[in-house]
Amino acid sequence: MQKRERKSGEMSAALGALWLGLAGVVGSHLWSTADPAGSKPILLKLGSWVPGWWGIGPFAGKEVIGLLLWLCSWLILHFLLKGRNTSIRKAGVLFVIGFAIVLIAIWPPVYHAFLGWPPGLPE
Predict the structure, then answer these.
(1) Membrane-spanning residues where (predicted)?
(2) From CA 112, how far away is CA 30, in angstroms rounded?
């Protein structure tokens, strides 16, 4: 009996989809921080199907964006990479680098600097 070698594309697809879902949550949070008046109604509408959404407000919409990005990208990447051999090491390193970028981007001093907050500080 010959042992079948498992392909690693599915694992790379899962890591890529996970990162895209995280990036979606962070991106929607940064959007809601930069434009609260424009984003809040949209995020509330997106999250209104989540049980208990009124208790967490716009965060439910941010989670829905992350969930949709994760699911859609996982499906697409899974079928694109299914049956292929990819480097798990490269996928892991890219995931860790991407995770670090997302983590740094959500740190308030960083996104405040990008948004120019607080206004009127000397340069």
Answers:
(1) 60-81, 93-114
(2) 10
